[in-house]
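Honest question from a wet-lab person: if I give you the sequences of every part of a complex, can you actually get the arrangement of the whole thing, not just the pieces? Trying it with mine:
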Amino acid sequence: MAWVNAIIQGVLTGGLYALFACGLSLMFGVMKVVNLAHGDLAVVAGYIAIGIIAVTHVPVLWSFVIVVPVMAVLGYALQRTIIQGALNRGVLTTLLVTFGLSIVIENALLQFASANSRSIGASLTLVRDSFSLGSQIQIGYLLVVIFAAAVIVLLGLQYFLSASKYGRLIRASADDPEAAQLAGADYRHVFGIAAAIAFGTVALAGMAYGMYSQLAPTTGTDTILLFAFAAVVIGGLGSLWGTLLGGVVLGVAQQIGAQINISDEVLAGYIVFLAVLVLRPQGLTARRTQS
Amino acid sequence: MSVVTDPATSSAAGFRVTRSRRNVAWTGAVALVVVVVLAMFPYIVYSGTTAILVQAFIVLTLASMWNLLAGYGGLVSVGQQAFVGLGAYFVLILALHGASPFAALPVAAIGCGVAAFPLWWLVSRLRSGYFAIATWVLAATIMLFIERFSSIGGGTGMPLPGFASLSPTLITAYTYWAGLAVTVAALLAIYILLRGKLGLVLTAIRDDEVAARSSGARVGLARLLVFVVAGAGCGAAGAVLAISQLQVQPSAVFSVNWTAEMAFATIIGGIGTIEGPIIGTAVFMVLQQTLQSYNAWYLIIFGLVAIVVALFARRGLWGLVDARLNLRLFPVGYYLRLNGENGSAKGRLMPLRRGREVADG
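Yes, you can. This is the full assembly:
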């Protein structure tokens, strides 16, 4: 029964990891930017939420309504300035700049917000309560909600990119920015919009993790970025549904690892990641272009 | 693209191929004097000064290795802390088995070079940005794996044994010399590598990877070699780190801040030049020493400066010097000079590539 429980918990945390990976995948798919500051930005979003809740005492769920747009605007602004500037200078510069951002953000959080861990909405019934399946399996409502949110975000992105007019514009700009520009689309603005959407999902990811567990300055890289990346690689680069599968595989691997030895949770996930890298470098789902 | 079959025979044709614009004998002599003077420091300065210099040696070695990876090999690794940590742990394990930590240092460097082969096999499947994060995951995995063994300190680490027979003064001096030796060896190794066939192949890859491949350059092999050398170099720096700290703690030796320091120092100094990391390390040490009472501020400022330099002055501080003075302390390229011109030509000349060497490199 403990194993069944581990697998159920793993599948559900997989939704969280897929949510982590959404923004990373989108930024790479559209702008060919591997955003090494991805996880730290998610933590920033979580900290903003904590700050807003502490100052204005808005209900926790309302803070989403504020933080997601704030991060989206930040995403647009960063894309139009630093990231586009780096892109114009080549892949190497993009990596250096986003890595620089990652280190700067992490240390700034350490400096201004201390190394303490913080959580979001620990007193909410949604966060605390769970329901039972049989006598040994307890499932937290929050994980179910996060899983559902991940599926909704992925579905929404899929629909938006493949069926909507703006999605078509984004795909065109991703395929060939100059050609899109010639056809009358300002690809820089389109990239800005794509970054805004990506940052919106980053905000969701950061706040979801803050409710599920705790946020600290180092959470951004050692949990969010690396897990997101592992989910992307396991699932297959460039596939949104592969990302969900990758997240689920990572989550299950971690829970099974934790079942064997509680301190091996994270290591077990990485071992599965490395196994996929060796045995099936294209990921579990066949390579497909999502954007 | 002018391809000269053999620089040695071409002087009769009205031009000469040289390594540098001007005579470099004096730079070699100055470098030798600098190393000799640095080697005498334990006799003339306080141990506080040598301790700071050991830190500088570690950062300089790391930055030079990262520069070889990213600036020449096009491999942006953000997981070089894997090798720093492995180097430190090699020293710890050997010291626990009774070896002197100083004797363990070269073994640690070789061990890290050997470890780089399987790690390369894993991460080389991914390109550019994904390669970067994969190296990061690898470093995290290695740390988690090492933390499982309580006999080498588990998650908290342990003090480094093997110093009992030495007086504190001697330990300080030996540590300093070890750091100096590692740095000099690292710089020399990189210089020799880049002057040789590997340098040509890497230059070709940097300019145009597809063209280099189609000319027969073994791009994969060249990158493997770069990764292995950088692994050994970072391992040696990690070994010096363990010795200078007298303890090994997993979260400290596997910290991503090592990669941040090496990358920022390289970018600020000038990526793709051997001189760049030296300048960058000097900037880093000044920043760190001035801001050391303000916790994380030195990394915040260092990172911001690196971002600005990466965006607006891509050739770094050394690039600014070079643009004015046309100076090379470590000439690794080739210059084509017409006879009678006496080096008065304006502008930078492309380093020449010898077709033969690229073909069998």
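Two things worth pointing out. Chain A has a mean pLDDT of 90. The two ends of chain A are 41 Å apart (CA to CA).
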